[in-house]
TrEMBL record:
Keywords: Hydrolase. It comes from Anaerosporobacter mobilis DSM 15930. The keyword Cytoplasm does not apply. SUPFAM superfamilies: (Trans)glycosidases (SSF51445), Beta-D-glucan exohydrolase, C-terminal domain (SSF52279). GO terms for molecular function: beta-glucosidase activity. This is Beta-glucosidase. Belongs to the glycosyl hydrolase 3 family.
Amino acid sequence: MTQEKIRDLISRMILEEKAGMCSGEDFWHTKAVERLGIPSSMVSDGPHGLRKQDAMSDHLGVNESIKAVCFPAGCGAAASFNRELLEDMGKTLGHECQAEGVSVILGPAINIKRSPLCGRNFEYYSEDPLLATQMAGALIKGVQSKYVGTSIKHFFANNQETRRMSSSSEMDERTMREIYLAAFEGAITKEKPWTVMCSYNRINGVYAAENKMALTDILREEWGFDGYVVSDWGAVNRRVPDLEAGLDLEMPSSGGQNDKLIVEAVKNGILSEKVVDTAVERILNIIYRFEENRDESAVFDREMDHEKARKIAEETVVLLKNEEILPIIKTKKVAFIGKYAKLPRYQGGGSSHINSYKVTSAVEAAKGLYNVIYAEGFRDDVDQTDDDLLQEAIEVAKQAEVAVIFAGLPDAFESEGFDRMHMRMPACQNELIQKISEVQPNVVVVLHNGSPVEMPWEKNVKGIIEAYLGGQAIGGAVVDIIFGNTNPSGRLPETFPLQLEDNPSFLYYIGEGDVVEYREGIFVGYRYYDKKKMPVLFPFGHGLSYTDFVYSRLRVSKEHILDTETLKVTVDVTNTGDMAGKEVIQLYVADKESTVIRPEKELRDFAKVKLEPGETKTVEFELTSRAFAYWNTQIHNWYVETGEFDILIGKSSRDIVLSKTVEVKGTTKLQVKYTLDTTFGDIMKDERAMGILQPLMKLDIFADDKEEGVAVAAISKEMREAMIKYMPIRGAVSFGGDCTLDELQSLLDQLNE
């Protein structure tokens, strides 16, 4: 429907109907206006599957939804480092929505993984904003190619579950822009999701739902977002200010209460009716975009999509450790130990919980194909060792040539609604792994979890596989990797620290009451660990393969560029092993010398390529000014500081294999204002300033040979240079300068013109 027709439709609506369009009919539907032929539209939970509820509705998944297919959760999807894979997953989800009449699927959820403790980390993508935004953008592109909308969430700074509906995320401007907004920016500006869901929390004291800076100034005016903003379910606090700030649709229904507030505000002259009209126009645009592109022939083929979920899951699995034990020779006798081998934990709890059509476990996938014996090993409803199950597992492990232990975090340890208290696995599982490793030298641990865990047994096992929460077909994907039918290619989208106390937010996470200070600033995840040169369990971007890849011939299009130019970077990658595999090439950029505090390096691009044995491919990247920039709080914009930058090619943030240095010249000039407190060191960096203030440089304190005798020992050359460098220029009056403060200020005024 054209804009003219939609505006004509709005002109024929009475105020009460327009106010009604700004809230839901129930939990999952917008309101219809029957007399004008405006249909109701359905939205549904499910960033990694379709959680459509037909009957009684609820937010946290208590009531049953339709049978659907559960794909890997965000933690696993991001581990694929494969944009094309996520786009294909999105197309499948979009097709399912068409088949079920769902206009918007509520996801992806891409809040930054600030701490391993966030209960909803399983649904989120990464600690790195570039990886998060590009993977989310790929999913959005796929879903919306089927004329179904997405609702990227939760906008923004929703990084904990504790007090999530009242806490205030307190952060500085640079942290906000470089980390927490950046996770959304690329996906929104490039792929243009149909809707954006605001978060529950406050941002520097202002609720996200009524945060004009976020919803209008940045989202719409700066980034060009043209869809509608929907509240997280129950996030509306003050309906009229929310609407004025840019929150178009309130969900779920408020039973008409907030609709009346909108009507009263317009009638009393508090709220302009044009604000209501704009919100209604945005909502109708999306409703009709779906309605006019309905695919009535679409069929939800759950069996076909289950197989697709298995193929996607294969690329989300990360091989963390392999001491010549994987892949397991297919004829060996293998013990599968642990409850999750038979009943995998493959998704998180809460609003994204999918009522799975079917679930393939590792035991089921291996049945009839391999010589596998099974023992339950532990219970996950209580964190208490079951001596009978433990003893049975030990006996089974003794009978086998290799023991594969399926462990991880139970639902009670991580879910929407609450945060983890620690980073440990259940004690009963840690004990199981330790006991098995004492009787069986060949142990592999498969982990089912949504975020990092401590591994006190890491040195006692030969192999570790991170399966994350890989969806309903994860059992088959893991078995294929264990026995070498699939070459693992996942990479960690987050750092696994040795212990929780190492995490940069450890001292401040959860906050005090309703105030949560982001004191670690931009140093989230690997940005912190790498800057501190701190040992970690497994670094960001880490992941092993069954083959070997060699990088060579790193080239750049220019060694000197302006920040207005694009730098092309190419590198050759060769599979030198004897098995086909996929490699993730990671490009980091490091500012060699900066006047502001910056991370040691930052991920600026990545690519995943498939290579046959002996095959070489050339991978090409393009870097724009944003790759070299930081957010400058003086100009409130991105800024490239002239200097040298290292282009780093790595297999992880800690495994850099090639590097090349380029010089980038910034074209944006910063306004510099000199005062009496400006130091001589800062003056010396500016040729024009030196020319005007040159007479001050003839002071006695600048003389190298001033001190004699005992004074030479007391005042070294290094000490004199440091004193001069950091002395305010007003010091010239006190240290032999032939000028007054007024004369000095006159020179500064001339300099600042």
